[in-house]
Amino acid sequence: MVLRELDYLALEAAQNEKILNGFIEKHETVILNTASKVTGHYITKSDDEWSIALSAFVQAVKDYDLKKGSFLKFAKLVVKRRLIDYIRQQVKYQQEISVNPVVFDSDFDEDENRHIQFAVTQRSMESQKQESLSIEIHTVNEVFKDFGFTFYDLIKCSPKAAKTKSACGKVIAYCIEDPVAANVLKITKLLPVKILEKNTNTPRKIIERHRKYIIAAVVILSGEYPGLAEYLRNIREERRQ
């Protein structure tokens, strides 16, 4: 009943500016939370994403009718689509980066292969798959910033030796599957080194040296980044063992 009342209030807001202003104010938290989920990072009213999300919410009010079901579900969908369009537009104006497995799998001669670390032209992003991958990079990069690094730092800190990669894989798998370790990372933005060292028998030195790589892999494999996750197939295999 409450949801239906909200739906009818949305219809009234579309016809009355005063009601609309109050309706928007009441749902500011919903708008901000939706924007944060779509972009993958905390959004405030000072961010461009807030303005875009707000505009989309107002448009949702104007376009809404009862046949569309729950207003809130409809509004969140409109906001999500608008923000995704915004992200795509931003990507077009930035130097496009096509992920090479080298970012996560650094078993290569660094000098000889430096030129293939990144493809730097817009043309390399023509396919739909690459466009989706670019959006994933943009989104996950915002998450990485909360941990004090960026996506592009990974090329320098990814493990090279097979033995080290295997050790990191065990740490990553444990951090994803253990609720305590996962919560510590999520809340403190720090790796629970002692917990990981004890439960995976991995030397502290390896964990600390490859901290960024481990965190990045945990974030990607725990989130909705299917394209990037493909470059971490070896870790998925580690989790199955």
Overview of this structure, please?
This is RNA polymerase sigma factor SigI. Residues 24-90 form the RNA polymerase sigma-70 region domain. Its main location: cytoplasm. The protein has 14 helices and no strands. It starts with a helix and ends with a helix. The chain has helices at residues 2-15, 17-26, 28-39, 48-63, 71-93, 128-145, 154-157, 162-177, 179-188, 193-200, 204-209, 211-222, 226-229, 233-240. The chain is mainly α. It has 2 domains: 2-92, Rna Polymerase Sigma Factor, Chain: A, CATH 1.10.1740; 94-241, no CATH class.
Describe the secondary structure blueprint for this structure:
Layout (H helix, E strand, L loop, with lengths): L1 H14 L1 H10 L1 H12 L8 H16 L7 H23 L34 H18 L8 H4 L4 H16 L1 H10 L4 H8 L3 H6 L1 H12 L3 H4 L3 H8 L1
Helix pairs in contact: 1-2, 1-4, 3-4, 3-5, 4-5, 5-6, 8-9, 8-10, 8-12, 8-14
Overall pLDDT: 81
The run of helices and strands is: HHHHHHHHHHHHHH
What distance separates the N and C termini? 49 Å
E-strand count: 0
Percentage beta strand: under 5%
Gyration radius from CA atoms, angstroms: 22 Å
- Helix percent band: 55-70%
Number of domains: 2
InterPro entries: RNA_pol_sigma-I, RNA_pol_sigma70_r2, RNA_pol_sigma_r2
Keywords: Cytoplasm, DNA-binding, Sigma factor, Stress response, Transcription, Transcription regulation
Subunit structure: Interacts with RsgI.
GO molecular function: DNA binding; sigma factor activity
